[in-house]
From TrEMBL:
Belongs to the CbbQ/NirQ/NorQ/GpvN family. It comes from the Bacteria. This is AAA+ ATPase domain-containing protein. Gene3D superfamilies: P-loop containing nucleotide triphosphate hydrolases. Residues 50-196 form the AAA+ ATPase domain. Signal peptide: none annotated. InterPro entries: AAA+_ATPase, ATPase_dyneun-rel_AAA, CbbQ/NirQ/NorQ/GpvN, ClpA/B, P-loop_NTPase. Transmembrane segments: none annotated.
């Protein structure tokens, strides 16, 4: 089990200093990421503390966002988030100009976005599903993500150099619908860390701590269901989202008041589009829960 005292002294000192300065910020993420492989969390901490950008690569629902929040929590460092899509533009990243009325006089002011805020304040920047953005949008971040940690704000002309504590975490779902291959020049600006599905005893502990379901016998059956779904995903017979921990947590919560099969339909099955996938999940569920 990972513990802070396993970290180098310099990193422990940095965490202590952050706790004193930013420990009460509302932008600090909540902990909760758990993995059978402590190296995932440890390596992320080491990379971030060395000023590296971290790219979390893993299937939908493997806990990449929860891992980013946990890193924010461990470092006591506020985190600004960007949810990428085809509509992402420079304003969503950097900020925008607006008209401000000050004592009856209209002035144009710049409202900083997540990138500028994180850079200036020395916070974490989380870029979720980075390969959902249009390839022509992301090059604006090249200077932010390389050794310069600098950007010229196109809206104000200001040259912004990041505070030394600034860090970047991005997440990617490779091969997912709507994504595009990440430009190699951009990917090379990151340390890449694989985030696997949570399974077995570790998954059981996650369900116990993060769901409302307390029936341990039922929780263990859901762990078995998850293992069966992951096997189908790995064989190419099921979409990744069907094995999402997020969907499984929804299902466990519903099971407090609904029969398991109905909870599975609402929490997992009906989120899918393919009828064959729906039938496959129901077949497995009926075997486990009837």
């Amino acid at each position: 089990m990972f513990a802070i005292d396993q970290l180098p002294t310099a990193i422990q000192d940095k965490i202590k200093k952050n706790k004193e300065n930013d420990g009460t910020s509302s932008l600090i993420g909540s902990a909760g990421y758990t993995s059978a492989d402590d190296d995932v969390l440890f390596d992320c901490i080491i990379a971030l503390s060395m000023g590296k950008n971290v790219l979390l690569k893993g299937p939908t629902g493997s806990g990449k966002t929860k891992l980013a929040e946990t890193l924010s929590s461990i470092f006591y460092q506020p985190m600004h988030s960007i949810n990428c899509s085809v509509d992402l533009d420079a304003e969503a990243l950097l900020g925008f100009k607006t008209i401000h009325n000050n004592d009856g006089k209209a002035t144009i002011e710049f409202v900083p976005g997540p990138v500028i805020n994180a850079m200036k304040q020395g916070n974490l920047l989380y870029i979720d599903e980075i390969n959902m953005a249009k390839p022509e949008t992301l090059p604006i971040l090249n200077g932010v993500l390389d050794y310069r940690k600098t950007i010229t704000n196109p809206f104000t002309g200001e040259v912004v150099k990041a505070n030394q504590n600034f860090g970047v975490i991005a997440a990617i779902n490779e091969g997912y619908v709507g994504t595009v291959p990440l430009n190699e020049a951009l990917k090379n600006r990151f340390v890449v860390i694989d985030v696997p599905y949570v399974q077995g005893e570790v998954l059981l502990q996650v369900l116990k701590s993060q769901s409302k379901l307390e029936d341990e016998k039922l929780l263990k059956k859901y762990v078995t269901l998850s293992a069966d779904l992951i096997a189908l995903v790995e064989n190419g017979n099921l979409s990744e989202e069907a094995a999402s921990v997020r969907a499984l947590l929804d299902t466990c919560d519903l099971s407090v008041y609904l029969p398991p099969l109905r909870a599975i339909k609402r929490g997992i099955v009906e989120k899918l589009e393919d009828d064959r996938e729906k039938a496959a999940i129901l077949n497995i569920a009926q075997t486990l829960f009837e």
